[in-house]
Design a protein that fits this description.
By secondary structure, the protein is an alpha+beta fold. The chain has helices at about 10-30, 40-50, 120-140, 145-160; strands at about 55, 70-75, 75-80, 95-100, 105-115, 165, 170, 180-185, 200-205, 205-210, 215, 225, 230-235, 235-240, 245-250. Strands 1, 2, 4 and 5 form a four-stranded antiparallel β-sheet that branches. Strands 3-12-11 form a three-stranded antiparallel β-sheet, with no helix packed on it. Strands 6-10-13 form a three-stranded antiparallel β-sheet, covered by helices on one side. Strand 4 and strand 5 form a beta hairpin.
Length: about 260
């Protein structure tokens, strides 16, 4: 693991602006996430929105990734590649994950969308996954260890009969796309590194209806699916550790400032 970057006030402001743009991208795309729409079309709109706001999409060409965002429906856990063949249908759940680079600073967030009427099991998974994110955020403050985030998330998710993806995790972000520390979503309480003011990282629990394990598509080398093909959900925010607690940088609705 490399050195954790403690951000300066100037850097924090730059990261904050990029995080707001990433969150605004998800707000922008929401009306277009409808039955009959291809994921390629959504990717095109997000790319245009980000560029219209004088930023660039971080995922495009990152280690060869071919798209401007990740769009992951149903059993796709993460890193779904948008394409013309994948057309949204009623009953689908879909994660859209956006990372922006604005003036050299990164902002990273994702959320779930539902298409038409979804069944009770799917809705329950979304509710559980959002609660996992909230629990992870609730323990973010100076002096706590990062393992406490994964401890709280995994304890709750497993109590509800869900699998917690352990092969992918949250990460430091801000000056680079992926920085130290890693933020596992399944961890022991007294593990990890101490949270300190100026740290910025993502919390992005991936919660499965069934088994925790995943498999990567052999053809494209990116798309991650549940090993049992049951549904998966994910919500993500970028967090700043402050002197007294944390600021959710990608929260533009004031949900966590109440």
């Amino acid at each position: 693991m490399g050195k954790i970057i403690i951000k300066t006030p100037e850097q924090i402001e730059g990261i904050r602006k990029s995080c707001r743009l990433a969150a605004q991208s998800l707000k922008f795309i929401a009306p277009f996430v409808q039955e009959g729409v291809s994921t390629a079309y959504l990717n095109k709109l997000i790319d245009e929105f980000i560029r219209d706001h004088h930023a660039i999409p971080a995922t495009l060409n990152y280690n060869g990734f071919p798209s401007s965002c990740c769009i992951s429906p149903n059993e796709v856990v993460c890193h779904g590649i948008p394409d013309e063949k994948t057309v949204l249908k009623s009953g689908d759940i879909v994660n859209i994950d956006v990372t922006t680079i604005l003036n050299g600073y990164y902002g990273d967030t994702s959320t779930m969308f539902t298409i038409g009427e979804i069944d009770e099991k799917a809705q329950s998974l979304l509710t559980i996954t959002k609660k996992c994110l909230d629990l992870g955020i609730s323990v973010c403050k100076p002096g706590n260890l990062t393992g406490l985030i994964g401890y709280e998330i995994s304890k709750y998710a497993r109590s509800r009969g869900c699998g917690v993806v352990y092969e992918f995790c949250g990460h430091g972000v801000g000056l680079q796309f992926h920085e130290p520390p890693e933020i596992p979503h399944s961890a022991e309480r007294n593990t990890g590194v101490e949270m300190r003011p100026g740290m910025t990282f993502t919390i992005e629990p991936m919660i499965n209806q069934g088994k925790a394990r995943t498999v990567i598509d052999k053809k494209d080398g990116w798309t991650v699916r549940t090993i049992d093909r049951k549904l998966s959900a994910q919500y993500e925010h970028t967090i700043l550790i402050t002197d007294t607690g944390c600021e959710v940088l990608t929260d533009i609705d004031g949900e966590y400032s109440r």
